[in-house]
Design goal:
Elements lengths: L8 E3 L15 E3 L7 E2 L15 E6 L22 H4 L10 H6 L35 H9 L2 E9 L4 H8 L9 H22 L8 E4 L2 H9 L3 E8 L8 E2 L2 E2 L3 H13 L4 E3 L16 H15 L6 E2 L17 H4 L16 E2 L6 H12 L3 E3 L5 H14 L4 E3 L9 H7 L2 E2 L1 E2 L3 H18 L5 E2 L22 E2 L5 E2 L2 E3 L2 E3 L1 H4 L7 H12 L1 H8 L1 H14 L11 E4 L24 E2 L8 E19 L4 E9 L6 E6 L6 E21 L6 E8 L1
Parallel strand pairs: 4-5, 5-7, 6-7, 7-10, 10-13, 13-14, 14-15, 16-17
Antiparallel strand pairs: 1-2, 3-19, 8-9, 11-12, 18-19, 20-21, 22-24, 23-28, 24-27, 24-28, 25-26, 25-27
Helix pairs in contact: 6-17, 7-10, 13-15, 15-16
Protein name: Discoidin domain-containing protein
Organism: Aeromicrobium phoceense
InterPro entries: FA58C (IPR000421), Galactose-bd-like_sf (IPR008979), Metal_Hydrolase (IPR032466)
Length: about 675
Amino acid sequence: MAALGALVLVTGGTGASAESGWWVATSTPTPESEVNATGEPMRGTGPGGEVSGFIDAHTHMFMDLGMGGNAVCGSTWSEKGVADALKDCDRHGVSILENLTNSGAGRGPLDAHDTVGWPTFKDWPTYSSFTHQQMYYKWVERAWRGGQRIMVNDMVSNPGLCPILGVIAGPNKYSCDDMDTVRRQIKATYDLQAFIDRQFGGPGKGWYRVVTTPEQAREVVADGKLAVVLGVEVSEPFGCKQVLGAPQCTKADIDRGLDELQGKGVSSMFLCHKFDNALCGVRYDEGTAGLLVNAGQFLTTGTWWNPATCREGEVADNTVIGGVLPSEIASVPGLPAVLPVYPKGPHCNPRGLTELGEYALRGMIKRNMMVELDHMSAKAAGRALDILEAEAYPGALSTHDWLSTAYMDRLYGLGGFATQYGHTATEFATQWRETKPLRDKYGVAYGYGTDMNGFGGTAAPPEDGAKISYPFTGVDGTVFDRQVTGERTWDYNAEGVPHYGLVPDWIESLRTLAGSAIVDDLAAGSESYLQTWGATSDFQPGANLAREAIASASSTEWNLLTDLKPGRAIDGKLSTRWASKYGQDDAWFQVELLSVRPVSKVTIEWESAYARQYRVQTSLDGKQWRDVAVVGSGNGGLDTVKFAPSSARFVRMQGVERATRYGYSIKEFGAFS
């Protein structure tokens, strides 16, 4: 009887052929999904040691373990095999979340769908469904066989949507706490690695390799296997929610949380996701999805999104809708039936990066973690980029088209990496062409972020010009036929990308539509990502020469309550500042370094009284000054001014024109070699 629940293994590979080799499992559960790929995966490196392979920088392989366990029907894997992992889902016949978000199905909120997975898969998975498993491990294996060499697995959940699902699809199986979910999904990632290893002969033998450093990832890719990077995308990291605007975490919570994630091998993370939290405001969701997320925000924080009409020159967030909630959602305890009425778009989230958010961002820099800028409000992302530029920190990522295009030049200028959402082949190829000149400017290759198992949907069936022929040959010579799971045969031409196993078919569609150039660009993506990760891992902050300097100024504002002398602008505290007297456009602030040093960058953290125009000057003797940079359109905040290296004993901000009726006020002044 005990054997009935044990792992059943069969000798030989899984698929349409009796193929053998290091890349084929020697034992698998039975029954099992097919891979339908033939040929040895590409291994090795180029003449300069560069690796080759596609990168998916944004996936959610274990969403079935997030949001209380009710968001996604079907498991990523099971010791008992596919029949257990992708079986019928209890209470999923009428899935309100599925019906509200799956526009491609055309169902009403209370319409039923066929819940049967294995072996027929009549109604799921589909490209337009958010609530069915799309990343069964054999489907991921097929993507690896298609040339993918890096996959970022983002641990994901949402504490606002979790209790809603607990009512309309529950009861919940797991805690709604974000950090509990992160721990659960990280464990599952390592458990899957061990499960696959057993099929390939033991520890380290399998194709699915969890990596925690860029060096490990480079070795795995060179060995022809899939490097799995751990990321985090949750709404309340470290318990950092806000309730009625009040933060529910401390700096100590942030430090403990970052230390824990670093210890578990997490390499990248989002500071906010979907909800305004204690760290930053979010870039809103649009349409029906936005209604649901906004309801979740209210449920967990007591506040709705609060967009304002963007002022001229502001970078916009997505425009949101208000109105009446669907009755099934409004029935959730604690939710009103009507959302707020919002002003005319375009909308900007007035919440940016909070003081705690800046502390967390600098904590990530301290721990050499890559920062995901997607989902930050435009205001928060702009401030985050200011800080990253001031630090010259390369670890900036945008992995699924949620960062405004207005910021992409700055991201690449840092040495960051971006991937495009996995749109239809036509949309993807169009965006590839449009964005290629900017990437060429910085010598950066391309990648995709499918957001698979996320709530964005996958690529729809292709237009006629992007349809493919079966069998086809992948980038490294592997031959692919239609993918088969149980009684179901998947055809990309008719179904788009219903699950991860059809990513190779989608890439073939891109080749058919846009030629080999787009595939070559994608194949260079893993190397570009590893260069960003490597530079982040190796990053050491530059010494701020001003920190031990002597500060002076042309004038100082007198204040009965606080000290505004020049030394306050180089004490390392943003809570103190120097201020000049009112009404002096030509006021200046300077530092005298301990010795003559080459200087090539100045950072100025302005208080609200900032300079619209100013010059950065250097001097060897404090008498003869040379302009090394001129800023003609300052907008306050944090300025990073770079220039050709200049030998200097003195470094000065020489005011030209004030932006306010006050004088100039600087919180922190930095000078760097």
